[in-house]
Specification:
There is one protein chain. With 310 residues, the chain is of the alpha/beta class. The chain is built from 11 helices and 15 strands. It folds into 2 domains: 2-111 and 249-308, Quinone Oxidoreductase, Chain A, domain 1; 117-245, Rossmann fold.
């Protein structure tokens, strides 16, 4: 088969479409012939040498895939520890999902990683609450907006102004241009956030606490704004707030399987009803993954950038 390899850490130009050995599925695994994968920020970090795959995972980038189970012919999509940028990928059967009714196999590649990340971090108990989503134009952001709105939440999101119209069309009630506006002041005008989904990390830590409602919770899933920050615990104690910080890729087999089951139960019905749709900015041939990484690094896209195989 062919796969995108990373001969050395560096810029997008290091990504190389090369012939490599076929993966050999182990006990409890299925072999998927890839139709599409999607680009995630973790892939960029792996390319740069900052985020190695967990032990036992494929060395190739790619945290989600859609395609065909080579044994049964069934169309599936899957959450991966790595290996999505390849013509074939072996994955535990418990980490696969059926293609939601109404979607093509290719479109489904935009869902596994974002659905599992969002569901496992903010849960499904959002009715009547206010959710603040940082990076609303990302794959995570566009999914979280739709998911929360479908569950009856009020959604505030931060993004560049050029993306606001698209995010309002997805259901966001309030959009904040983080390049021109103080998101804390804007959130205070609206109320306060019961839940915050944050991809920025250190740079936003204190300000997120300021924007948090009493008994609110902050879920940190990224460190685009740094990894180290000082926190005044008095501010958190005063709000009886909680902070969680999680990464999906390194979780164990059983934990991922439980998350996938939760997504199948809580999220897939919303997708099949049309309340949530995959937001795909563009499709790029997988052999041209370097171009896709450049698009995501610039961050002018809205939603997911797919890598497709004819």
């Amino acid at each position: 088969m062919h796969a995108i390899t990373i001969p050395s850490a560096g810029g997008p130009e290091v990504l190389t479409w090369a012939e490599v050995p076929d993966p050999q599925p182990g006990a409890g695994e299925v072999l998927i012939r890839t139709v599409a994968s999607a680009v995630n920020r973790a892939d960029l970090l792996q390319r740069q040498g900052h985020y190695n795959p967990p032990p036992g995972a494929s060395p190739y980038p790619g945290l989600e895939v859609s395609g065909v189970d080579t044994a049964t012919g069934a169309a599936v999509c899957a959450l991966l520890g790595g290996g999505g940028y390849a013509e074939l990928v072996a994955v535990p059967a418990e980490h696969t999902l059926p293609i939601p009714a109404g979607l093509t196999v290719e479109e489904a590649a935009a869902l596994p990683e974002v659905a599992c990340t969002v569901w496992s971090n903010i849960g499904a108990d959002l009715a009547g609450k206010t959710l603040l989503v940082h990076g609303g134009g990302s794959g995570i952001g566009t999914f979280a907006i739709q998911f929360a709105v479908a569950l009856g939440a009020t959604v505030i999101t931060t993004a560049r102004r050029a993306k606001h119209e698209a995010l309002r069309e997805l259901g966001a009630h309030h959009t904040i241009d983080y390049t021109e506006q103080d998101f804390v002041a804007e959130v205070h005008k609206i109320g306060k956030a019961d839940v915050i989904l944050d991809i920025v990390g250190a740079r936003y830590l204190a300000r997120n606490i300021d924007a948090l409602a009493t008994n609110g919770r902050l879920a940190i899933i990224g460190m685009q704004g740094g990894a180290k920050a000082e926190l005044d615990l008095r501010a958190l104690l005063a709000k009886r707030g909680s902070i969680s910080a999680t990464a999906l890729r390194a979780r164990g087999h059983d934990e991922k399987a439980a998350i996938v089951r939760g997504v199948r139960d809580d999220v897939w019905p919303l997708v099949e009803s049309g309340a949530i749709r995959p937001v795909i900015d563009r499709r790029i041939p997988m052999r041209d993954a370097a171009e896709a990484h450049r698009v995501v690094e610039v961050s002018d896209h809205v939603g997911k950038v797919l890598l497709t195989i004819d």
